[in-house]
Write a structure and sequence with these properties.
- By secondary structure, this protein is mainly α.
- The chain has a single domain, classed as Orthogonal Bundle (Penicillin binding protein transpeptidase fold), CATH 1.10.3810.
- The protein contains eleven helices and three strands.
- Strands 1-3-2 form a three-stranded mixed β-sheet, with helices on one face.
- Helix 5 crosses helix 7.
Length: 217
């Protein structure tokens, strides 16, 4: 009976988050407990710069419009690598998988967490849709120590709202996403200075893609 109730609860929670912002995530709570702070301001999709929306796709998941939540080729590559180096589990995470992890789960690299992540990825792909997944990603992703979401990142780094972010500023924030605690946007770390021009180039390559435009507009 308890298992059934838990299943119903999590299903209702997933459905509710199609329209309601996540109240708090485990990662955000951990950041606060660890003393890194918790700065966040959720904003709607329409109030996020078009540049910022495009930048995170260019940086993190260029096949975002095409897959069902999983980049199969990258996953197969990871499994092959991990069979040779079993002590290390490397990522092949799409934006959808990152949202599933950030909203519903804890940070970690175990196979158990990955399996649960796959379930939530499947659910949000089918219940939320791509635009909502991208909106939630831009609001919950860690973008600096104790900084969550594009709105706080924009205010902390560039003293403006996320709606006003330029192309370059968006690319700099997106460039930090592989490890935002390590790769600082302001002052820009060496990694950021090297990577954000690449992100800008990818944005130029992707901006005319009709499937990406359908998500961003």
């Amino acid at each position: 009976m308890m298992v059934i109730l838990l299943f119903i609860f999590q299903l209702l929670y997933i459905v509710a988050l199609k329209w309601v912002d996540p109240p708090i995530t485990i990662t955000q709570l951990a950041s606060y407990i660890e003393g890194n702070g918790l700065r966040r301001d959720y904003v709607t999709f329409e109030h996020i710069s078009h540049h910022a929306r495009l930048a995170v796709i260019a940086s993190e998941d260029q096949l975002f419009p095409d897959h069902n939540g999983f980049d199969v080729k990258s996953i197969e590559k990871v499994i092959t690598q991990d069979s040779k180096k079993s002590s290390r589990l490397r990522g092949a995470s799409t934006i959808s998988q990152q949202v599933a992890k950030n909203v519903f789960l804890w940070q970690g690299r175990s196979w158990i967490r990955k399996a649960i992540e796959a379930y939530f990825t499947f659910m949000i792909e089918n219940i939320w849709g791509k635009k909502r997944i991208l909106e939630v990603y831009l609001n919950v992703a860690e973008m600096g120590k104790g900084i969550f979401g594009i709105e706080q990142a924009a205010r902390q780094y560039f003293n403006k709202s996320s709606e006003k972010l330029s192309r370059k500023e968006s690319a700099m924030i997106a460039a930090s996403l592989p490890n935002p605690k390590k790769y600082t946007v302001k002052p820009p770390s060496r990694y950021i200075n090297q990577r954000y021009p690449w992100v800008l180039k990818q944005m130029n390559n992707l901006q005319g893609d009709p499937e990406i435009k359908a998500i961003l507009d």
